[in-house]
Design a protein that fits this description.
Blueprint lengths: L6 H4 L2 H4 L6 E2 L10 H4 L17 H11 L6 E4 L1 H13 L5 E6 L4 H9 L2 E6 L10 H7 L4 E7 L11 H13 L4 E4 L27 E6 L12 E4 L3 H15 L4 H12 L1 H25 L3 E2 L8 E2 L2 E2 L7 H11 L2 E2 L1 E2 L10 E4 L5 H17 L3
Parallel strand pairs: 1-12, 3-4, 3-5, 5-6, 6-7
Antiparallel strand pairs: 2-8, 7-8, 9-11, 10-14, 13-14
Helix pairs in contact: 4-10, 5-6, 5-9, 11-13, 12-13
Amino acid sequence: MKYVRMPIEIESPEQMGYENVKYNLTESSFADAELGDLDLDLRKLVLCYGDHQGNRALRSLIASDCGVHPDEVLITAGAASALFVIATTLLQAGDRILVEAPNYATNIETPRAIGAEIDFLTLRFEEGFRPNLAQLAQKLHPRTKLVSLTVPHNPTGSMLTESELRQIIELCARHGVPLLVDETYREMAFAGPLPVAASLVAADAARPPVLSVSSMSKTWGLPGIRIGWLICRDRKLMETLLAAKEQIFICNSVVDEEIALRFLQQKAQRAPAIFARMKQNFTVLSDWMHTQQDLEWVQPAGGVVCFPRFRSDCPVHIERFYRVLGDKYKTFVGPGHWFEMDRRYMRIGYGWPSTSDLREGLAAISRAAEEARE
């Protein structure tokens, strides 16, 4: 493994220091919850090694929501470790992976660290950042060992239809290639969530597996408890994935799992306020995008991020823009290079800041762009 630190992590607010950021538009999740707001009493929780596959009650709750069996759910340390376990299980040096680009860096960097060859399914602004199924079919190679998609997409917020998802599942099956679907933003789809991709394939079917990944981080604002999961209906592969988890970290923190369980037991009561805030912030963002003149976007269809870019005729000095935005206005966005894209693109996270901070941060982008004109 050849590990390389990723710009998205090096330059993240938690590494730069939250005290240096006034308006944080880099985050790709809902606002962080406070432990006190959850009103939990964990004093009688036994701090033992937990079930290696994950807390049974937690797996049962996730399984019932996803249309699978609890034994088809593996609890992981956030979605990131699920992605790591899948990549290191299914890929070896010299194998090929077909992955959407742009993308969350881990979906690309872990295969690179293994020594796999990366083929990109390029999502284009002009095509609404939606995967081209014909291009996907053309890019499959005899050495392709994994196809990796993210729905809703990060950083663009684009969506697939259920029909398209099913077509991709069948296409991968015909070519004998496993499919990974990162569904971290699944419940944030504006038109309602798609079925869990892994649930669309029968258990232990004689076909390549479909794996779904999600977590407590994005929709529910609980990144600090590091709870995610993967779903796989292939029992033999699930045994290997469990072996990988055991060799990396044995089991999850029983404290983290208990917090996740208690939260999900109250999800129906907590969800309305979360989604109302997301909707309110999206309205603020959309109104701003339609009144300013410098940026253009593909309007997201899910998640809490978008990926606008400066118009080609906007005479802005990009480096000066980011410098003014950060140094003068203490406002931070996710610059394009976080996603191996031109820095004229930026990811704006609109779910994490308060509505008033979002307004101020967006206004700061407009002011910085004006001050950075050439």
